[in-house]
Write a structure and sequence with these properties.
single chain, 508 residues, alpha/beta, 2 domains, two-stranded antiparallel ribbon, 15 helices, 49% helix
Length: 508
């Protein structure tokens, strides 16, 4: 049942993603930076909000007039800041929703990733509440509509029991209540959001909080142009003696209020809480099995800490050596955080397949279900099977990229890995020295590794920018490192044909 709904969404996303790569390039594809884009938009909201607060009058009689002043009389700065504040707020929610859709479509929310998904839902609530309280402070007729609707929702909770609605009877609304709302919007909710975002990314390493420079400039210019072309304006001033009849809702933030025209406040709470609960429980609908965590072998570990530095999910820490060896440090794995991606295996210098003294290749850190010696054995077997072929191509492929099982060619052998980051660069040299005419490493799309850094780390190792490095003697023309998604099978087949032709021409 899950695949029935999930697969169409996934393929739709992958096709859109391909077009975005074409339009923006992989480095600046906004779909690869949705998390950092949300941070960037929040920075714009913060900076513009600080300026607005300087002018803003936190009183019932002064709030609307101060907003009108900055919008109309100081349009060149205050008006622009107000519009940037509004549109950056909308953009924040948009990129967060796209982030949720993306992680769901690529199945990056279950298994070891449950914590990030589960803790992300409260942050979505906080962002929405920030937007709602911001509309409230303008104190125009839209703010009046939001305030009365919010009071109805709050009165449905046992802790208020009708007390909130009394604030909005004529003559009952005081400056003190309005100042309280300003405090909630300016300090209370932002502090909670900062704390919530910290928890959300707590299990990740090297969190990307800054967008690429080009993408940041482009995003800001787009918001600035929108602010100048279509500046944010207010409705008429709030008047508790009348009922507003014509409102332009911001459907990103205020979509819950029209429900009150069709449901009671209690029913609306049941609906919204039900949807939120379902969203939080999705990582277990159904449960996704995570393979056993990597295991450390101190007999083959020199405590270099490269595995610690490369782990994408903060599953490895370093501590003082416990086995009395001459090395100072040793890695410790938290099995509850380990994704079993194998990237740390590719980091270990002992994973070199050319260690001839080893009958069974043993390394300092390894996957129990697919150990590195099994990869070396599979490589030997593949080369033996290709020995009679005129052209011998070996593919090391990621299990989360393009489907390699569809390839059926007598001159191509395939070895599937949890992640291309598991492959030590020495395997390229090892494979070519033992008879392969060409090696193709097929990972996830560039900048979009399922395990965050697998593609990136391997690319740096090949370039010699990260240990363990690929030996300089290796002929770089005999291997290719590419990134393909499930919808890129045609490109992969074309790439194989190009390699085959290149080898054939070289042999001729």
């Amino acid at each position: 049942m899950k695949n029935f709904f999930h697969k169409p969404i996934k393929y739709t996303y992958l096709y859109i993603d391909a077009w975005f790569n074409f339009a923006f390039g992989t480095k600046n594809n906004p779909l690869y930076h949705l998390g950092s884009l949300a941070f960037f938009m929040l920075w714009i909201v913060l900076i513009s909000g600080l300026y607005i607060f300087i002018i803003f009058d936190t009183s019932i009689t002064g709030a609307f007039q101060s907003v009108e002043y900055m919008t109309n009389e100081q349009w060149y700065l205050g008006g622009v800041m107000r519009s940037l504040h509004r549109y950056a707020s909308d953009a924040t929610l948009v990129v967060v929703l796209l982030h949720i859709i993306r992680e769901f479509s690529l199945d990056r929310y279950r298994g070891f990733r449950w914590f990030s998904w589960f803790t992300g839902t409260p942050n979505l609530w906080l962002i929405v509440l920030l937007g709602i309280s911001g509309y409230w402070l303008v104190w125009d007729q839209l703010a009046q509509y939001v305030a009365i609707g919010s009071s109805q929702l709050l009165d449905a909770l046992p802790i208020f029991s009708g007390a909130m609605s009394r604030n909005f009877l004529v003559g009952n609304l005081s400056d003190r209540f309005f100042t309280l709302m300003a405090f909630v919007h300016l300090l209370g909710l932002p502090v909670m959001l900062v704390f919530g975002l910290w928890i959300h990314v707590k299990r990740l390493t090297k969190v990307e909080v800054f967008v690429p420079k080009t993408l940041a400039i482009g995003s800001f210019l787009a918001l600035l142009i929108l602010s100048l072309v279509k500046p944010a304006i207010s409705h008429a001033q709030a008047d508790l003696t009348i009922i507003p009849t014509l409102l332009n809702l911001d459907w990103y933030y205020l979509n819950v209020y029209p429900l009150l025209d069709y449901f009671t406040a209690g029913e609306t709470w049941i609906l919204t809480i039900g949807i939120s609960t379902l969203l939080m429980l999705m990582p277990w609908l159904p449960i996704k099995r995570t393979p056993p965590a990597v295991v450390v072998d101190l007999n083959n570990c020199n405590g270099c800490s490269q595995c610690f530095d490369d782990c994408p999910f903060d599953a490895i820490s370093m501590q003082a050596r416990t086995d009395g060896a001459r090395w100072k440090m040793e890695p410790v794995v938290d099995p509850n955080l380990c994704a079993a991606c194998g990237i740390c295996v590719g980091s270990c210098p002992y994973s070199n397949p050319s260690r001839r003294s080893e009958v069974k290749l043993a390394t300092g850190i390894d996957l129990p279900e697919q150990p590195i010696h099994q990869i070396r054995t599979a490589t030997k077997t593949a080369l033996t099977e290709l020995s009679s072929s005129k052209v011998k191509i070996l593919i090391f492929g990621c299990s989360h990229g393009v489907n390699l099982t569809e390839i059926n060619a007598p001159d191509v052998a395939i070895i599937t890995l949890p992640c291309t980051g598991m492959l030590p660069p020495a395997f390229i040299d090892y494979t070519l020295q033992r008879g392969a005419d060409g090696v193709l490493i097929s990972g996830c799309r560039s900048q979009d590794c399922y395990y965050r850094f697998g593609n990136h780390w391997l690319e740096q190792r090949i370039k010699g920018d990260r240990t363990p490095i690929l030996a300089k003697r290796v002929n770089r023309e005999k291997f290719d490192f590419v990134g393909y998604a499930e919808t890129d099978e045609a490109q992969l087949l074309q790439n194989i044909a190009t390699i085959r032709q290149r080898i054939t021409e070289g042999q001729g």
